[in-house]
Design a protein that fits this description.
Length: 473
């Protein structure tokens, strides 16, 4: 049989079986039900242990994934017919297991989109909650801390990058698409530089410290850190795709233009919207829809610039007028949907792509280097930069502890790094470990050292919203 005949047969052969659209919809509904059940159960367990719910939700996602329910542990020789496992896995040649059959690729992709939508809405609320009144006169401290807690981890990324640049931790290693050492080191540094800005802000609010000098500088610096960190991620992805220096500089320039446009063009244009809202004292359906459309448009532009959707959504929240009233309105309508439904879906989606069974003893050394560098870089980097920025060592130590918390944002950075082929699945697992360990460390360490910090409030400043307006993530 010649090549032409084989090509003709391939073209005329029926396509592999796949799930029908209505089956995909059914799977998505079933998967969301399973995710929410697991997230609530495990999240409640971790709350009883004194940990943020998000830690339990990350663990819930891992438990639903291939680590526990994947084919490495056991295969599913006779899955129930209603799961249509053979059809779902035909295109990917996957091995039937509880995880692969319950979360087929077609449904998992939809879950990923829902998770990104949750991140978008959540970061919009975080940006809307930020009170700029607390940043007046603190530019030096904010700039020093925000730059320091990114530069130190990125520098450590270049230090440990060569140690991790091997088949165990580099994506597409040994292929034509193998990323360069530079791209890998930048991406590792970007992952090390992540700070869970929402977690930091919520802890300071719950402890009543948003009015202190340390709290206002820490929250504002964490907001800037998120933008700088995603710029580092975008740079690593650009270098991995062999983009030239000119292309990378253009991305920086476009990012600067985008941020400047949001603050100096879009923000003034929204002033009439703010006045109209204050006159009505309520948010109409048209106003609500208009803001959400702006959030989605900004998120799309940020994503195309390589900053991810969450930066664009955060910026819209940060520039809206009538902030206190709008936050209460939007939080009332979006908080539960976002925190209870959509964010657990994102965490589950990350867990479905995290497989601890791919690790063995040979990975321990590299994982330890990555984890230690991440903790030391953020904790020490935060403490030293805060001291240089004018805070006391006690205040700097607490800021370092809070900056070290990764929450779910490191999962976002790791997902980008994995999807671009820069890191291996094993290093993505290390990011999940970093999220769990550093987030669990934060509460106990914060409670231990916060007593050494003066709680003198900043004059003419007040928290924007009541504490515990939204759950810690």
């Amino acid at each position: 049989m010649n090549a032409a005949t084989l090509t003709l047969l391939a073209q005329t052969a029926p396509p592999p079986a796949a799930l029908k659209p209505d089956q995909v919809v059914a799977f998505v509904i079933l998967d969301v039900f399973v995710i929410l059940c697991m997230a609530r159960l495990v999240g409640a367990l971790f709350l009883r242990m004194g940990q943020p719910r998000v830690v339990g939700e990350i663990v819930a996602g891992v438990l639903l994934g291939p680590t526990l329910l994947g084919p490495t542990i056991f295969t599913w020789d006779n899955p129930p017919a209603f799961l249509h496992c053979a059809d779902a896995l035909a295109a990917t040649a996957g091995t039937p297991s509880v995880s692969t059959c319950l979360f087929p690729p077609q449904a998992a992709s939809v879950l990923g989109v829902l998770g990104q939508l949750g991140l978008t809405l959540f970061m919009f609320l975080v940006g809307l909650e930020l009170d700029f009144r607390q940043t007046k006169g603190k530019g030096r401290g904010i700039a020093t801390v925000s730059v320091g807690v990114v530069l130190v981890p990125v520098a450590l990324g270049f230090l440990i990058g060569p140690l991790l640049y091997n088949a165990k931790f580099v994506g597409n290693f040994g292929t034509a698409d193998q990323p360069s050492r530079l791209a890998f080191s930048i991406m590792v540094g970007a992952m090390l530089s992540v700070t869970a800005f929402p977690v930091m802000a919520r802890i300071l609010q719950e402890k009543g410290l948003t009015r202190t000098r340390m709290g206002s500088i820490g929250v504002s610096a964490a907001a800037m850190t998120s933008v700088l960190m995603f710029l580092a991620v975008a740079t690593g992805a650009a270098v991995a795709s062999d983009a030239g220096v000119g292309s990378i500089l253009l991305k920086y320039a476009l990012t600067a233009v985008f941020v400047a446009t949001m603050f100096f063009v879009v923000r003034p244009l929204l002033a009439p919207f703010g006045r109209r809202y204050e006159q009505r004292s309520s948010l109409s359906g048209a106003m609500f829809a208009g803001v959400l459309m702006l959030v989605l448009a900004s998120a799309y532009i940020a994503d195309r610039l390589g900053l991810t959707v969450i930066v664009g959504a955060f910026l819209v929240g940060a520039i809206l007028p009538a902030r206190e009233g709008l936050f209460k309105e939007f939080a009332g309508r979006l908080s539960d949907l976002t925190a209870i439904v959509l964010l657990p879906i994102f965490l589950a989606f990350s867990g479905l792509r995290t497989d601890f069974t791919k690790l063995d003893a040979s990975f321990v050394g590299g994982l330890a280097v990555f984890l230690v560098a991440g903790i030391v870089g953020k904790w020490a980097g935060g403490a030293v930069s805060a001291r240089i920025g004018g805070l006391s060592w006690a205040e700097g130590n607490v800021i370092g502890i809070l900056m070290n918390c990764r929450g779910l944002l490191i999962l976002v950075a790791a997902l980008i790094a994995f999807n671009t082929g820069v890191i291996s699945p094993q290093l993505q697992v290390a990011a999940v470990l970093m999220a769990l360990i550093t987030t669990m460390m934060t509460g106990p360490l914060f409670d231990r050292f916060i007593g050494r910090v003066s709680d003198e409030p900043v004059p003419d400043s007040a928290p924007m919203v009541p504490r515990a307006a939204a759950p810690i993530h």
